[in-house]
Amino acid sequence: MAHLLGAQALHVDFGTGTVLESVTVGLDDGDRIGIVGANGAGKSSLMKILAGRLEPHDGIVTTSRGTRVGVLDQSDHVDPEITVAKAIVGDADEHEWASDPRIRDVMAGLVPDLAADAVVGTLSGGQQRRVALAHVLVDDHDVVFLDEPTNHLDVDGVAWLAEHLNRRWARGRGALAVVTHDRWFLDAVTTRTWEVHDGEVEVYEGGYAAYILQRVERDRIASATESKRQNLLRKELAWLRRGAPARTTKPKFRIDAANELIADVPPIRDSIKLNRMAASRLGKDVVELIRCTVRYPANDGSADADGKGGGEVEVLTEIDWNIGPGERTGILGENGAGKSTLLKLITGDLEPTSGRVKTGSTVKVATLSQQLAELEEHAGERVSAVVKRFSSVSLADGNEMTPTQLLERLGFTPVQLKTQVGRLSGGQRRRLQLLLVLLTEPNVLVLDEPTNDLDTDILAAMEDLLDSWPGTLIVVSHDRYLMERVTDQQYAVIDGRLRHLPGGVDEYVELSRERRAKTGGVGSFGGQTSATGSGGGAAPASAAMPTLDGAEKRALEKELAAAERRLGKLMRETAEVHEAMAEHDQADFEGLATLTEKLRSNAAETSALETRWLELGDRLGK
C-alpha cells in the first residue's frame, strides 16, 4: 500500500482561535476518508491544506512523486465565458472524449440534461456546480478531494456519484477524501472517518454508522457527564441498526456490540401516540388533492423552476392524494419535476388549473422554505429576544419546552442566544428558522430542503426534535438519510404524476435509471447508461474479483470465522481492561502503564484483523 500524501504537525489560526493544532494525517492507496465535524471546526481548511490550496501557519505537507491530485472546492467556479464541453474536457476534440468510457460515464451521470455547446454563464448555480464536479472526475487522479460534492445533486445523482467513486479505482488503489454532511453518501463511499474538533483530528474506522457506534463507545467510557449528548447518539445508533439496512461494514461482533448498546433505547418514534395526538389536533380531514392539474403559461414570470417553456406547460396531471393526520411523507423527484408546485398546492399558495384542494377546517400549515428571508425583519434583534415572544410548546414525548430550551436542544449555546440574528452563521440561522416555524404550533409542517448549512450533529438533533413533533409532516429533500430517517413513506413526482413508492428511495432510484435508459438525457450528454444504471462506462476489469473455486471459498470462510472469533475475544478483553483501569489504584503508575500497553496492543491487533475481515468479506461477496 503506497503512501500518497501526508501532513505533519499542521497548525492553523486565522486570528479568531486555533483551527488546527499539531495535526498529523496521511493518505495511502486504498483510503476512502470521510471528514466530519461541526461547522467552522476546520474541515474545509484541512482539505485545502492537504490539496495544496492553503498554506498552514506551521507544519508541512508532502506528496509522493508523480501523485496526481484532483480537487473540488466549495469556492471553485467555472469560467462563465466558455462552453460546457470545454469546461469539462478542455480543448479535447469531441471524438477524443466521446470515445472514452470513463468520460462518457461522468457526463451521462452528472450533466445529461446539458448541451455541449451551452455557455456556462447561462446555466444555474447548481448546473455550474455539476459541471465543476464533472471536470474533476473526468481526469485520471490518484487522490481526489471533494468538498460538499452532493450539493445540487438529486437523490439519483448522489447514488450515481457513490457508485462512480466506488468503481473509479481498482481495489486498494487511489485515495478519496470527502467533506460532506450527506450521511448516506458517507456510508456509501467511505471506509474511515476523520472527525475534526477542538483543533484535533480523531480517526475512526468505517463510514458514518461505524463512526456513530465508536463515538457512543467513546462517550460511554470517557464520561458519564455527557449523558444528554450520549443519549442522542445512542438514538442515532438505534436508527442505524433498526430503521435502515445495516451500513456498518463491520464484523458480527461490532453489530452485537451495537445491539447491546441500544437494547434499552425505545423506538425512534411512537407512531401510535403521534398519530393519536395529530388526529386530536387535526380531526380526520387534513389536505386532499382531487384530480389536481397545474399548467403554467410559457415564459410567464409566474412559472417557477418547474416550468419548462414552450406553449403551455403541464407540470402536474390529475393528482389524487388524501393526506391524513400524523402522516410523515417524503416527496422525491428530479429538479423541475413539480415538487415545489405540489407543495404550493398543499400549503394553499397555488390554485390548481383544474381539480380542487380540500383543506380541513382546523389545519394550520407552516413551511420551512429554502430561503431565510423571514429572518430579515429580526436581523438587528438578539436571538433570545426574538424567541421570548413565543410560549412553551408541548411535545408528543410528554415534555413541555420553552423556546430557549428548544434552541439549546438544537445546539445553541448561551453566547449564541445573546447574538444578533443578522450575525448568525448560515447553519445557526437555519436552526432558528426551524424553531420559529415550530413555535407557531402548526399541525401540518412542510420542510423544503431543510438540511442546508447543517452539520451532522445538528441534523441528528433536528431529527430528534421532529421525532416528538405531533402533526403531519411533508418533506422534500435530496438528503436521502434525512428522508429515510424522519418519514415513514415516500412518493415520487414522475412525468407530472404522483407515484407511491412501497420500496422507498431504492425503488425511486431504480425507476429513475429505467427511465434514463429508455429515454436518455435531453442534452448532448444524455444516453444509454451502464449495466449498473449509472452511466456509459463499465467498471474497470482490474476491479473485478476472481471467481473462487470450492476449496478456496471454504478456506476463506474458515479464516473469516476465525477472525470473527478472535475479534470478539479482543473486544471482551478490552472491556475487561477498561473495567480494571476504572477500579485500579490511580497512584499505581506502573500498573496503569501495563494496562495501557495492553489496550494499545489489543487496538493494533483489532485494527489489523478488521482490515483482513473486510478483505475476506469482499472476496466472499459478503
From TrEMBL:
The keyword Nucleotide-binding applies. GO terms for molecular function: ATP binding. Keywords: ATP-binding, Nucleotide-binding. Signal peptide: none annotated. InterPro entries: AAA+_ATPase (IPR003593), ABC_tran_Xtn (IPR032781), ABC_transporter-like_ATP-bd (IPR003439), ABC_transporter-like_CS (IPR017871), ABCF_ATPase (IPR051309), P-loop_NTPase (IPR027417). Residues 519-544 are annotated as: Disordered. Residues 5-223, 294-520 form the ABC transporter domain. Pfam families: ABC_tran (PF00005), ABC_tran_Xtn (PF12848). PANTHER family: ABC TRANSPORTER ATP-BINDING SUBUNIT, ABC TRANSPORTER DOMAIN-CONTAINING PROTEIN. This is ABC-F family ATP-binding cassette domain-containing protein.
